[in-house]
Every structure is written in structure tokens, then in C-alpha cells.
Amino acid sequence: MEIVRAFKTELDLNNQQRTAGMRHAGTSRFAYNWGLERKITAYRSGERMPSAIDLHRELNQLKQGEFCWMYEVSKCAPQEALRDLDRAFQHFFRRVKEKKAGKSIKVGFPRFKSLMKGVGRFRLTGTLRIYDGQIQLPRLGVLRLKEKNYLPVTDVHILNATVSERAGRWFVSVQVEMEIPDPEPVEKPVAGVDLGINRLAQVSDGTYFENPRALIKAQAKLKRLQRVVSRRQKGSANHQKAVRQLAKAHARVANIRKNALHQVTTWLARTKSAIVLEDLNVSGMMKNHHLAQSIADVGLHQFRRQLQYKGQWYGCEIFLADRFYPSSKQCSQCGTVKGSLGLGQRTYHCENCGLVIDRDWNAAKNLEQLLTVS
Ligand SMILES: [Zn+2]
Fold this sequence. Notes:
Blueprint: E1 2-12, H1 15-44, H2 52-63, H3 76-100, E2 121-124, E3 129-131, E4 134-137, E5 141-145, E6 156-166, E7 169-179, E8 190-194, E9 201-203, E10 208-209, H4 213-231, H5 237-271, E11 274-278, H6 282-286, H7 289-298, H8 300-314, E12 317-321, E13 347-349, E14 356-358, H9 359-372
Parallel strand pairs: 8-11, 11-12
Antiparallel strand pairs: 1-5, 1-7, 2-6, 3-4, 4-5, 6-7, 8-9, 9-10, 13-14
Helix pairs in contact: 1-3, 2-3, 4-5, 5-8
Zinc ion binds at residues 331, 333-334, 336, 350, 352-353, 355.
């Protein structure tokens, strides 16, 4: 079975490479913003919006004059940025349509990219090669990797590479096409999974995954640094220093969470044949301040995305429960549905049959029953 997969790993850059990276990211951002400006102008004057191809052609003209500095970077960087811009508009128009059809979603117009959000990223195509501990990219040459043996060296077709910076560290994400063995037709059980308020994940078979201690610690540090930043005077050297530390702490929390989610999703996709998840209306829940933290923490979107692609690799189907399905309020033993269940209530107690069970486990069992009962 052929799959497309991304591998992300940290780069070990020298000063010269770092500068080249910043230049590429800057050009990418510039092209994106320039294209966005062009699209907006066209739209306002009632003209047809120029496509990525139109814009690229126009940019190539400008490169011969005003934008001659663009010759310093790979031509892929602005080209791919313009493709991203097209995608952002496609996404925007799709959301507008969905909203018109009655879905309650927010529709955000594509925004200008700001340097305030960090150096940014750029994507390259063309001659890309992976060696042991190194990667070769157009214009940037051979770059060292911090981790050896992570990127696949043989039997892969590299589609593109995205270089990004976060809190002073540089990463490369390589998208590859590769052949993997078809999933073996083995008998595996089905399961319901509840992304807990109390725990990272609760599985209907009783297995559960706690939030890693490192995550809780890192989050506490993040909160402390947020307070420090708000106390410092804006524009001062101390403020800037605190902002840098905060960005680092953010990156660390995101990393720990992502790794924890990977462990859970790999295990689930390997050992289950089908999984039911709750289809939470996340944007609706974000309004509820209490839940916002835990939902953001669990990284629901990331979890679902990981499960969906790993499910394909290992032969596990993913189902989403209707978002009005009362997985938390229903008793998994007798089916009675409670009128209300406070968020603080960690245990589910059924007045009808007397079942006393952990709240998340009860929800996971209900989700599993969507597959087994019907
Ligand atoms: Zn009951």
C-alpha cells in the first residue's frame, strides 16, 4: 500500500545556513503578503482574482527589476507561498459556503503574515535528498540533522520539504511517498475513546492514558512566564527576554503533548479494528471558559488527525459519534440518560441501575456501544 507521510525533525544549522533560512522564510512571507494584497485589490475593483500561476508569472517579471533580491533564494519559496495563498482562499470560500448552508462556524478571511509571529517557514520542491544524518535542499545545500536515522533514506519518493523556525530552533518536515505493507487481516476489537477532562484519553476496554507529568510541569511554567511577560514594561530588554522564554515554553508544551498523543494514537490504531470518537463542536466549546483549557490541552484536532492517518496504515477505521449523542450523560449499563452532569463530577452514578463508574470510562463505553449494539 502506498502512503504519503510527513517526517519532521530538527536541523542543526550554522550561522550562514541560519541566515539563508531566514532569507527564504522572509521571501516566502513577502510573496504571500504581496499576493494577498494583489488579490484584495482585484476583488475590490471587481476584477477576477489572480491565481497562484498568474501571480507567479507577475512576480517573475518583477524579479527582473524591483524584486531582484529574490534571486538570492530558491524560486520555490515564493512559488509555494503563492500556492498556500490559493489554498487559504479555497478554504475561505468553502467555509463561506458552509456558513451559508447553515453551519455555525467562524469564517476568517486570509490574513497577512507577520514577523511578530516568528521567522516563519518556507517550502521547497525539486532536488531533495536525504542522507544519513543530513538533508540536501535546493539553494541551502546539505544541512545537518540533530537526529540520525529518523528520516527514511531508501525506497521513498520525496515530494517536498518545509523548513520552519520555532523559538530559535529550526526544523524540517519532509513529505514522502512510500510503500508500506498492507495491514494484516487480524481480528482486533473495537473501542470507544473519550478524550478526557481528567485524563488524556480513556479507552472503553478500561485502558487509560494520563496526561504526562512533564506536560503538567511545563504548563505550570508557561503560566508563570505569562505572568512575568505581562509584568514587564513593553519594549524593555527584560520584556523581550521574557517573551523569548515564553515562546520556548510554548514550544515545549506543544512538543510534549504531541509526543504523548502519538503514543496513544499509535497504540490505538495498532490494536483496534475500529474506534469511535466524539465529534466535539470545538469552536462552540471554546466559548465555555472552563472547557477551553482542557480541550486545547488535549489537542483534539491533532488526536483525530493522527488517528485518521495511522488508521489507514494499520487497518483501523475511525468513526465520529453524532455531536448530540449523550455519551457522558448516558448510563453505559442500562441506557438511562441523565438530565445534567456537572463538569466537576468525576464519577458517574446511575440512579436507575446503581452503576458507579469513572465519568470518562462511562463515556468511552457508550461510544464503543455505537458500533457493537447497532
Ligand atoms: Zn444505569
